[in-house]
UniProtKB/TrEMBL annotation:
Organism lineage: Eukaryota, Haptista, Haptophyta, Prymnesiophyceae, Isochrysidales
GO biological process: DNA repair; error-prone translesion synthesis
Pfam families per UniProt: IMS_C
Protein name: UmuC domain-containing protein
Organism: Emiliania huxleyi
InterPro entries membership: DNA/RNA_pol_sf, DNA_pol_Y-fam_lit_finger_sf, DNA_pol_Y-fam_little_finger, DNA_polymerase-Y, Rev_trsase/Diguanyl_cyclase, UmuC
Length: 289
């Protein structure tokens, strides 16, 4: 029995040593990330004649995306890979800066629970389960903890929730140029969906204007689509509606006295959700014939 206990203790010790080695390696990589990202930003600026970009460095995609918003339009922000650093970062982050939260959920959190930051969201996790569905409340808790759902382990064949394509360009208020940019985004998304064998039912258009304010507009859920032409046909009415509404005054606040102001954009993104496999749909049709 003593020998067995000694062997088990040895295995545990080896496991702990391996884990500590991986943690130390991750910390070394994280320490190198700052200079590397800074160099990437410099090279982009030099190669494009001055195009600026912001970046986030963090333990996962969600936190890095949030970090990239901190020092816009030309800077970077690092969230250290420790529990304390992650929670400190989230505690000061407004809920409107949290990706994937959505305007409706943000409004509910503010008006019903008084939640305006990631820290307050974590404190109100129990109340959130009374306000939202269980799945949505669990998702909000994950966000408040800085847990990125995309990087969870699990079934490699599980269906992804969404697919998107976006780009940043020199700001423009020319409708024809913005339509061309939208077509380019739909081409890119269509190619990605074709390569992945996916079609989707719900399209969301994400627009970022020259003051870095973001507008997300969703088309009604419809038939599953995936080609560039189909994506463009569903996205174009959303863009046209925003072009008619025009731009915003200083600070991103719409100004009704300047109805003639044109919308100036610097980024367009298209996302599809409600995904399904093309091959599965084709197989089902073949079986019915």
């Amino acid at each position: 029995a003593g020998e067995e206990a000694g062997e088990e203790a040895g295995e545990v010790g080896e496991g702990v040593a391996s884990w500590l080695s991986e943690v130390e390696a991750a910390r070394r990589v994280h320490a190198l990330a700052g200079p590397v990202v800074s160099e990437i930003r410099r090279r982009v600026r030099d190669a494009t004649g001055g195009l600026t970009l912001s970046a986030g460095i963090a333990p996962n995609f969600l936190l890095a995306k949030m970090g990239a918003d901190v020092n816009k339009p030309d800077g970077q922000h690092t969230v250290s890979p420790t529990v304390e650093a992650v929670l400190a970062f989230l505690s000061a982050t407004p809920t409107r800066k949290v990706p994937f939260l959505g305007r409706v959920a943000e409004k509910l959190l503010q008006e019903v629970l008084g939640v305006r930051t990631g820290g307050e969201l974590l404190e109100a996790a129990a109340e959130a389960h009374c306000l939202f569905s269980r799945g949505r409340a669990d998702q909000l808790l994950q966000v408040a903890l800085g847990w990125c759902e995309k990087e969870r382990g699990g079934d490699a064949g599980a269906m992804q929730k969404g697919i998107s394509f976006s780009d940043t360009f020199g700001s423009s208020d020319e409708p024809a140029a913005l339509r061309r940019q939208l077509w380019t985004m739909c081409e890119g998304l269509g190619a990605s969906m074709l390569a992945a064998g996916l079609v989707g039912e719900k399209l969301t258009l994400r627009l970022k204007d020259s003051s870095f304010e973001v507008r997300s507009r969703a088309a009604p859920r419809g038939a599953a689509i995936g080609s560039a032409g189909e994506l463009y046909a569903r996205a174009l009415p959303l863009l046209e509606r925003e072009l008619r509404r025009g731009g915003a005054a200083e600070g991103g606040v719409p100004d009704s006295t300047r109805s003639h102001a044109r919308l100036r954009l610097r980024s367009i993104g298209v996302m599809m959700t409600g995904l399904s496999r093309v091959r599965a749909a084709a197989g089902a049709e073949g079986g019915g014939g």
